[in-house]
Amino acid sequence: MNLVVESLTLPIPDGSGRTFVSREYIRVVDPPRLLCYATRETFTGKLARPVLTAQGAWVKAGFDAVALALRDHANTLFTSRPAGG
């Protein structure tokens, strides 16, 4: 597997419609095949519960935005490759 760095344009999850660029480190699977993208994060410590209560929806929206941008990027790469490649 190779590591690829991609810059993805993501929506700021505050509903403003603005975007930001996030640098994502992606493992490339050879040969390419259908994959499932999942993110998991564990928040620990004294403030984990209150922070997640207050910001959980915002954090989830951020993770979902990355997943959608990665899916769209992968689809673009797949559809733009030469036939038979």
A few lines on this structure:
Helices cover 39% and strands 24% of the residues. It has one helix and two strands, in the order E-E-H.
Shape: elongated
Instruction: Spell the H/E element sequence.
Output: EEH
How much of the polypeptide forms β-strand, as a percent range? Answer: 15-25%
Number of extended strands: 2
Largest sheet: 2 strands, antiparallel
**Separation, N- and C-terminal Cα atoms:** 18 Å
Domain count: the total is: 1
Indicate the radius of gyration in whole angstroms: 16 Å
SS-based class: alpha+beta
Count the helices. How many?
1
Average predicted confidence as pLDDT = 80
Strand order of the largest sheet: 1-2
- Poorly predicted ranges (pLDDT <50, ≥5 residues)? none
DSSP helix fraction: 25-40%
Structure description:
The protein has 85 residues and is α+β, with helices and mostly antiparallel strands. It has one domain (2-80). 39% of the residues lie in helices and 24% in strands. Strands 1-2 form a two-stranded antiparallel sheet. The two termini are 18 Å apart. The model has no long low-confidence stretch (mean pLDDT 80).
